[in-house]
Amino acid sequence: MDDAAKNAGSDRNLSHQIRQALIAGKEELFQIMQEQSAEVLLAALRNPAIDEHHLLALFNRRGLPVEVFSAIHRGKRLLEAYPVKIALVCHPETPAHIALALLPQLYLFDLLKISTIPGIGQDQRLAAERAIIQRLSAQPLGNKLTLARRGTAAVVEALLREGLPPVVEACLDNPRLKEGTLYQFINSGTSTAETISMVARNGRWKGRPNIRLAILKNPRTPAVWFTLFLPVLPPVTLRELLATPRLTPAQKDLVRQALAGKGGAR
Description:
18 helices; about 65% helix; about 0% strand
């Protein structure tokens, strides 16, 4: 058989597969979802019998033609099922512009899941974080507490800026919270005596030198933390604290007493 005959036979076979994909029943469509040909898959997407279960089966595959993602995104009927939107956003081969267009349509905790999935595209992760942060002000306390415990570093930072004491306390135990973020929070106008005390009591953070110094340089820090932290500090650090202009007169008196106790009063 010469090449022309082979090509003609191949074309006839492809045409048959495309026609079959257009009229196949629900069970046969599951088999067609395993096809490699973009033409056959695109024909299957036009089949009136296709539903979310077929699409979810399709998204279990890798190496899908990019035209398939575009066709699903353009076909409003194919995106009516919410699980399809989730699967499309989470698929590692979905073009970034399609995933970004769908993210605003997702529920808050699905956005949270997407922002923490290992291997998710950087653009998708950042967009999911932004979508969460944009919705924070309208969220009830329970949702904010969940986000504080499970959110990414960017989400936790945004929650700390709100300064709600129960939320701050939940943020402190989030493994993604960065020391620099907490340091900035303590030095911000949002921190209060209550939230500073939460940091000072927290087992993970209270022993960190930079965090302790931030606590001791804040005029809103309750006196009890000066009483507990100052005795373990060297005279050079106590003199540094004494020179801090933000401290109140009462706080400076506590520093002087601690420095005198070490024989270093000035």
